[in-house]
Specification:
The protein is an alpha/beta fold and 401 residues long. It has 11 helices and 25 strands. Strand 13 and strand 14 form a beta hairpin. Helix 1 packs parallel to helix 9 and helix 1 runs parallel beside helix 11 (371-380). The termini are far apart.
Amino acid sequence: MSDHHEAGAGTAHRVLILGAGYAGLSAAIQLAARVRRRGDVEVTLVNAQERFTERLRLHMTATGRPTAELSIPELLEGTGARFVRGWVTAVDLEARTVRIDDERVLSYDTLVYGLGGVADTAAVPGVEGHAYTLDGAQNAEVLAGRLEGLGGGTVVVAGSGLTGVESAAEIAERYPELNVVLLGRREPGASMNPKARAYLRSALDRLGVTVRGGVEVTKVLPDAVELAGGETVPADVVLWTSGTRVSPLAAAAGLTVDERGRVVTDAALRSVSHPEVFAVGDAAAIRQGYGVMHGTCQSGMPTGVHAAVSILRVLKGRRPRPFRFGYYHTPVSLGRKDAVVQFTRPDDSPRRFYLTGRLAARYKETVTASPWPTWTRMKKMPASGAFWPRGGRFTRVREAR
Ligand SMILES: Cc1cc2nc3c(=O)[nH]c(=O)nc-3n(C[C@H](O)[C@H](O)[C@H](O)COP(=O)(O)OP(=O)(O)OC[C@H]3O[C@@H](n4cnc5c(N)ncnc54)[C@H](O)[C@@H]3O)c2cc1C
């Protein structure tokens, strides 16, 4: 097999962004919009698909609800950024190249690593063979096909985190004839204040979801899940939403990663081992004053914008500023007409204030739909994407870096 090297033309600084999710697209558009008229920086964005995957809507895709066709190349039109469709198979940090689909090789001067994360299907035996996931649009569509043809029976949603809750509610609302069981170590909504949690629980009850917190799934079988202690719960379909795992590419390349394989960054979002690599979104382990951030869309987009701004500062010979982010909400859909929105402190702990019902559902929909118009606006006014809560004292990191 002969490699097809694409080195880029001339002396421009080549920024290669891996992954066009919420974080990678934010980085690409922010950077491209700021360098459009300069000609000395080339921006290339690589992603597995041309269609943007709205991860926030994958539980809707899984229940056959249509979602918008959002084309990444169309979004990039007019920005000067190049789009490459392909699967990243390796990063060579020494040669500063990235291998795509095992045949093309792209060179870079600065790399932005934003390949996201997926459910941890390796944690429990049987998940990979017998469970469905919401790890991409294709997986969600396969599950949709299965649910549509089911006609009755039991769907076990394993994992009582927010993706599990949203999925269980969505499936139960769309298919009231199915018996939906939500299993997990913690009570659903465990991170919310007691009243918001009670609301969430009553909504799941109203939808007919059987909730079992405090249980550990130890095995997935073709027609059941096995719990610690030996009990089996029969299942026609198992949806696995538990845990998160990132691509092994970063670790294989030799970047310093944490115990979950995420790229460990400095305060400016540069890899601690390779400062020419920035890491963003779910694929990055980013420390704030309150601890290492957990992946969300609300934090992922700011990381992309910050990486873009930092790259430009470095190119100007200036020090990049530390990234600071404080969480502000946890919006959880409970089917199409209901939701609960827990407002949070910057460290993601719950405040007293929360929204429920149709107002919360409208809030959730507004948040879910907001990235695309945000990027469209950012193409013309990059500074419009640079606002997010910095988190005040919560995000101050005290130890020397
Ligand atoms: C059902 C569901 C509901 C959610 N709801 C919320 C919510 O309400 N609020 C919130 O803040 N967060 C929510 N999240 C979490 C949120 O979706 C993630 O935190 C967010 O998508 C992370 O963005 P990212 O850019 O890091 O990664 P992603 O959005 O996952 O993007 C990564 C991109 O990289 C591509 N990619 C991966 N590997 C390769 C490869 N080797 N080669 C080429 N391309 C590759 C993928 O195809 C994808 O396009 C939800 C998640 C799910 C599943």
